[in-house]
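Progress against Task 2.4 (sequence-to-structure conversion) is shown through the following example record, which the project officer requested during the mid-term review.
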Amino acid sequence: MSESKKRSTLALLALAISAFAIGTTEFISVGLLPLISLDLQIPVTTAGLTVTLYALGVTVGAPVLTSLTSRVPRKMLLFWIMAFFIVGNAIAATATSITMLLIGRVVSAFAHGVFMSIGSTIAADLVPNDRRASAISLMFTGLTVATVTGVPLGTYLGQQLGWRTAFMAIVIVGVIAMIANMLLVPSNLRKGVKTTFGDQLKLVTNSRLLLMFIITTLGYGGTFVVFTYLSPLLTDITGFTAGQVAVILLVYGIAIAIGNMMGGKLANRNPLSALLIMFVMQAIVLFVLFATVPFKVAGLITIFFMGIMAFMNVPGLQVYVVILAERFVPSAKDVASAINIAAFNAGIAIGAYLGGVITDTIGLVHTTWVGGIMVAGAVILTAVSRVLESKDGKSRVRKNNPNNQEVSFS
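Structure tokens generated for the chain above:
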């Protein structure tokens, strides 16, 4: 391994550690909802606001704060991001009311939004163009490892020592992540580009980018209609004990890790084609889960496949948005990444909210097919995006081939 490749790998690992901390705090509430509900004497759907408001905090904070901090040196910004992350989780760890807990969640969410947007572009800049999706995938591996170990371990800690202990453990991981960033991430990172309001407006009014942001929201968010309430679903519908749920979350996390690695490799060459296949499979799995979730063996198998599909689309979605931004609004690439992070979390917020509404009205089991409908919407829009991309490709060839020489599009 060359020295430069070794340095970039270490930097990516540091980013992955931070993503691990952030991924753990983002999804930890899923395993702790019953405990928070019982301790604070609130309905489980009210406790579900710890997922919904966190996602909304990222949705608002990612584009706005990324733009406001665009001229701050990247490494210094990484330090302050993790500092706010640590403070937010410390507030959650000491919360004695749902209001204080939600405040801590929103503070953490603001840090999350900025980190995931600049983290993606830093990761992409550390490697050659043909490895960008894999680099982003490696950074997002921190999120997947969080679901493999962080969330189940946090759930177990919460069950044994109280849910606040889980948040205190995240504070410790946040400190480790801060140190890793300071030691391993290079100081000579590409400076952020100051984006004008006009450039930001171009991002959200460009039809191609807007279409991808909607695809991200639907395709990523569909799973969270189910995942947000997975713990009560497994106990109330499938019939598992609370202790067994922690183990199932571990298995689910392993599935997510497998899917994320597959997604990065599949998206390197043709992100849109890969995304279309992923979304079709994801929708099918969610519809099948409606029939299998009452049965332990069949339900677990289906949930495992749901985990494989849950994060598989992330690298492809993120790298394709960066590609489109470079093509249409190159001066706002960082903010484009941030807006897509916001779209991911808008999907989580919408999914979590829908899951709560469905749970309160027609029942937990129906969260499955509702999530499937969301992902089916992403299938349709991804197919539309593929058609538009094909037209763009032919247009660019005609522009670069004014003599109308014969060109193959195979």
